[in-house]
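name: query_chain
kind: protein
chains: 1
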Amino acid sequence: MASTGLQLLGLVLAMLGWAFGVLVCAAPLWRVSAFVGGELVIAQVLWEGLWMNCLSQTTGQIQCKTYDSTLALPMSLQVARCLTVLSLLLCLLALLLGVAGAKCTHCMGDGNHASKARLARISGVLFLVAGLAYLLPICWTAYTIIRDFYDPNVAAPLKRELGPALYLGWGACVLLLVGGALLHVGSSPPVGKTLPVGRGAAKDNPHTAAAGEVKQQEKSFV
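structure:
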C-alpha cells in the first residue's frame, strides 16, 4: 500500500525544488565579478546569468541586458540553458503525474490503486532525473569559476566568484532528489507481501479450482 504521508512530503519538497529552480534559471546571479588584487575598489559590479547580465553601480543604479545572440554564447552556457529548461519541463510533467497518482487525490477514481501507485513511482523517477539534470550545469559552472579564479593566466578583471544563484541551485537540486526519492518510496508496494500459493492459484485460474472441486465430489460419491 502507498504511504500518503511520504507521497505528500515528496510532492511538497519537489514542488519547492522546482520553484527554486525557476528562480535560479531566471536570476542573473550565477557569476559575480571578483575583487582581486588592485580591483578591490571599483565602481561597478557585474552579475552574469543564463539569459542576461546586469551592471550594478555604487550609485544604486542597475542596468540589465539580455544576450544579443544565442549562437555567439559559449558552448557551456548553451548546454546549461538546455539542461535547466529540460529539467524544469520534466518537473512539470512529474508534478502532473504525481498529483494524478497520489493516494489522496481522485483524478483516476478510487479503484485504480495499482495504476495510481505506478504513476506516482514514475513521477518520483522523473523528479530524480530532473534533479540530476539540473545539478550538472550548476556544478560545471562552479568548476569553471573556481578554475579561472586560480588561473594566473586569466586577467583579474575577468575573474568571477560564485554567485548566490549557484547556492540556491544546489538547494533546489537537493529538494528535487529528496522529494523524488520519497515519492517513489512512498508509492512502492511493501517488500515480501505475496498471496498464498493455493489462494493465488485459485484466483488466477477459477476454472481449474472449480474442476478440482467437481473431481473431489465425484470421488466422495464413489
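note: The chain is about 60% helix and 10% strand.
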